[in-house]
Specification:
Strand order of the largest sheet: 3-2-1-4-7-9-8-10-11
Low-confidence stretches: none
Number of strands: 18
Strand content: 25-35%
Distance between the termini: 61 Å
Helix content: 25-40%
Radius of gyration: 25 Å
Structural class: alpha/beta
Shape: globular
């Protein structure tokens, strides 16, 4: 379907008839789509029914990112659901702008408006720009649907031609997907990262959303680099301008815990496995702050190339999950199977780092069975493959581990 046809179909959803169809489809089962479509087409145009069913599916997918209340009021495109910022991350960024005293933002490459919505709810006036007519129309409809049209102006334009000087800050979210999937070269973003950096340098404050795998060496010296995880999953990286040049930060949501350094600590020592193993949050790993976590828990690394921290004491930290280790074995699945059978382990969590063996293969071969649970880490210690068996650590009642 061409973009003009897409836009016409979307416009039909904004009519009273279209909105009524969407309201009735909130709880529909996609597995029953054929029967639902046949029933609806008795009273509504086939094109409108098709558009409404597609939108209903997108809304169901969007609940995970936006929550049910917003998702079922908003409108989406397939790319918008896939690429838009998770609401919790957008709120975090909007709050950061507000703390900087920002009252207006030029949101470039706004997509379906997820960040613009969060900014407006933080009391920030937004110019939301996207060059795709359908995407811009969806963003405008979302601002209206959520009662934020007075704070969000949506403009369909090429972001490279927008004058951002009237705004306190700039936010740029370049497209990082193309016809062949994800784009890993920052200069292949649309627009390129170099353009976004030049735009950021001209603003009082700016934030550039980039892929979490961005190489540290391409981060501009005057930028603060922040990696953000939500529920343990790394969601994105942001380059901040006008904040703390040269610093590196890991932010963990929903807690909001933030680990930041300007000068990284020295590399942690490599040592034998202690009683506890710490698995750093993904944002900590991406931000290259594992050494900072090791210093905080008084630990070292099992292997200089692996982001597992080991220590003799339990020191709870929001930046890593602690496990109590009961066994350390050379890698040998038959020995693991025997140990798990002896301990009647039926619920087995397999984690790996630095191992080519897949968790599914481990579970298939050891055939766990029994009432107990355990976690096995497949990793390396001083270059040799090992298996560490344990369970999530629980602090002692006196808090000393």
């Amino acid at each position: 379907m061409g973009r003009v046809t897409d836009l016409a179909a979307f416009s039909a959803l904004l009519t009273d008839e279209g909105r009524g169809l969407l309201t009735g489809l909130r709880h529909y089962d996609p597995a029953q789509e054929l029967a639902v479509a046949s029933r609806l087409r008795r009273d509504h145009p086939a094109e409108l029914v098709s558009a409404a069913l597609g939108q209903a599916r997108l809304r169901q997918r969007a609940v995970a990112k936006f929550g049910a209340d917003d998702a079922y009021a908003m409108f989406f495109t397939p790319a918008g659901v896939e690429q838009s910022t998770r609401a919790s991350v957008a709120r975090h960024r909007a709050a950061a702008f507000a703390r900087l005293g920002v009252r207006s933002v030029a949101d470039l490459c706004c997509g379906i408006g997820g960040d613009a919505i969060a900014l407006a709810r933080a009391g920030v006036r937004v110019l939301a720009v996207d060059r795709d007519p359908l995407t811009a129309a969806v963003a405008r409809a979302n601002a209206e649907a959520l009662g934020l049209a007075d704070l969000i102006e949506v403009r369909c334009a090429d972001v490279t031609e927008v004058d951002t000087s009237p705004y306190d800050a700039v936010f740029v979210d370049p497209a990082r997907r193309g016809g062949r999937g994800r784009i890993f070269d920052p200069e292949a973003y649309s627009p390129p990262l170099s353009w976004a950096v030049d735009t950021a340098r001209r603003a009082r404050h700016a934030a550039l959303k980039v892929a979490p795998g961005i190489p540290h060496e391409v981060v501009p010296a005057e930028a603060e680099a922040e990696w953000i995880s939500d529920g343990g999953d790394v969601k994105e990286a942001v380059l901040w301008f006008g904040t703390a040049p040269g610093s590196v930060r890991a932010t963990l949501l929903p807690s909001g815990a933030t680990l930041a350094v300007t000068e990284p600590p020295p590399p942690p020592p490599v040592r034998r496995a202690g009683r506890y193993l710490y698995e750093p949050d993904g944002a900590v790993i991406r931000a290259h702050l594992v050494a900072e976590v090791a210093a905080r828990v008084g630990g070292g690394l099992l292997d200089e190339t692996i982001a597992y921290v080991t220590a003799d004491e339990l020191r709870p930290t929001p930046y890593a999950t602690a496990y109590e280790i009961t066994d350390e074995l050379p890698f040998h699945l038959k020995r693991l199977k025997a140990l798990l059978r002896e301990r009647e382990v039926g619920t087995l969590t397999v984690k790996k780092r630095g191992s080519a063996v897949e968790p599914e293969e481990v579970r298939r071969r050891v055939k766990p069975k029994g009432p107990n649970a355990a976690t096995v880490f497949l990793t390396r210690a001083a270059g040799a493959p090992v298996m560490l068996i344990g369970h999530p650590a629980k602090p002692a009642p006196d808090g000393r581990g």
